[in-house]
Amino acid sequence: xxxxxxxxxxxxxxxxxxxxxxxxxxxxxxxxxxxxxxxxxxxxxxxxxxxxxxxxxxxxxxxxxxxxxxxxxxxxxxxxxxxxxxxxxxxxxxxxxxxxxxxxxxxxxxxxxxxxxxxxxxxxxxxxxxxxxxxxxxxxxxxxxxxxxxxxxxxxxxxxxxxxxxxxxxxxxxxxxxxxxxxxxxxxxxxxxxxxxxxxxxxxxxxxxxxxxxxxxxxxxxxxxxxxxxxxxxxxxxxxxxxxxxxxxxxxxxxxxxxxxxxxxxxxxxxxxxxxxxxxxxxxxxxxxxxxxxxxxxxxxxxxxxxxxxxxxxxxxxxxxxxxxxxxxxxxxxxxxxxxxxxxxxxxxxxxxxxxxxxxxxxxxxxxxxxxxxxxxxxxxxxxxxxxxxxxxxxxxxxxxxxxxxxxxxxxxxxxxxxxxxxxxxxxxxxxxxxxxxxxxxxxxxxxxxxxxxxxxxxxxxxxxxxxxxxxxxxxxxxxxxxxxxxxxxxxxxxxxxxxxxxxxxxxxxxxxxxxxxxxxxxxxxxxxxxxxxxxxxxxxxxxxxxxxxxxxxxxxxxxxxxxxxxxxxxxxxxxxxxxxxxxxxxxxxxxxxxxxxxxxxxxxxxxx
Length: 609
Known about the structure:
Layout: H1 20-32, H2 35-67, H3 74-123, H4 126-130, H5 134-143, H6 145-175, H7 177-184, H8 186-224, H9 226-231, H10 235-288, H11 293-335, E1 355-365, E2 368-379, E3 383-387, H12 394-401, E4 409-414, E5 417-418, H13 424-429, E6 431-434, E7 443-444, H14 445-449, H15 458-467, H16 471-475, E8 484-485, H17 496-510, E9 514-518, H18 526-540, E10 544-548, E11 560-565, E12 568-573, H19 575-581, H20 583-594
Parallel strand pairs: 3-10, 3-11, 6-9, 9-10
Antiparallel strand pairs: 1-2, 1-4, 4-5, 7-8, 11-12
Helix pairs in contact: 1-6, 2-3, 2-6, 2-11, 3-6, 5-8, 6-7, 6-11, 7-10, 8-10, 8-11, 10-11, 15-17, 17-18, 19-20
């Protein structure tokens, strides 16, 4: 069902790729969202540039004052030294304050960005998650957001280096405009090749990101598929695949390092030429008497100091170039538009419908037909089974009834009202679902059972657990209802059947009038299936229930059964009626009657949706 690992394929109209300037705008906007910290941060940063230039100017003044005097007193030297030391300490304090505040600001920005991405993901439709890989979303939701933090820090560094650069340029200009221009001519000459190399860094960073994600997904394959790997003796193949990805990752990282190193080499080489030009031409001016040696020395110090922020800005350019792919992926998530949204005049759904209708419903996924012209009517309190070969569209019917998707053609009606005209949150309140693979949050048993109804009391949770035949087994856990569980595994030895009954307890506690069961017993052994089936039968009482079941024997007592084949509704009736009139159902029933299906479950089927 996953359609690739590139989020760019699943959003539609994409925002243009980020630039370094765009990334800095993002960092500045994120910083200004915290005005108190941002004000202190930028004030401390700007003061560093001012103090840097003031230090060079004070140094020149000291050299002029004492360099030509033969009667320098100890007191005068001490005062001059204290002035320079005071300026130095003030600059150091502003540097310390800027670093501390920038760390706080960057962490706040990172956390706020993470919350925004999670909030955005929660608003997106099921299709978005069906078409994106789990690894890609995890990378975007956590690792890529570190790029936002890095850019926030770099915004401060840009202000810092720019203020230092401006302060030193002003001082150099005041001492000798001609030599200042000559010395600083290296900046644009070195920046041009650095700009070109920045594109190389971005391209290599995109390839590195893809390789890192592939490596991450390889780890997921090992951790989740270790049984299949071992039975198929595929360890060497998995290792070779990881080695290929690791080698590609190495090449992309080296390529970035080479581009960064080349940019710095060019900048430093051009900077050296600028210093030599200043020294040569300035030395001639000193010989001609048009410039004093103290000013030349101070100017050389200023020009040499200028190259430090220039190289710092160059490093920032390289860093931001490397995180642009990460920022792009986060931006694409933020730009995604939910496909399922309430209409402006959406109606409330205050109670479960008496009649649910599929009115000439068709559905296509990525242009491929999944359901074609299905019409059926269901009544309140009915239990409806849904059967058919793999890929017939059974899960798609549930997704349309839950409005995870909208029909491509036709309508789903609740008491004659199109689902698209009903508030989606109200629909969800009327529904409960139990999936083939039980999903549990990393939380206590108590909180997992009350997840669908958080206001439930402890007594109500226990009553639901007893109704689901799981209370006694919960009490045998180390911490009882306070035992912390995970989605797939935990160290407490909780079986799949026990987790499934916890999910049933949660559905019982919610007490929703419409129930959806999607292969809820297909992954269980016969003993667990009997326990779960008994809990399900109790759960179904008095509700409108739609059941997808691999084992047809579990549907003998339902009110009616929908039979799907190749996306079409071929029959709708009772078990006995279908055995007498429906060839597709006859074929499925005959197959299961002649195969030991009750002991050896068939492979889990995979629908298009």
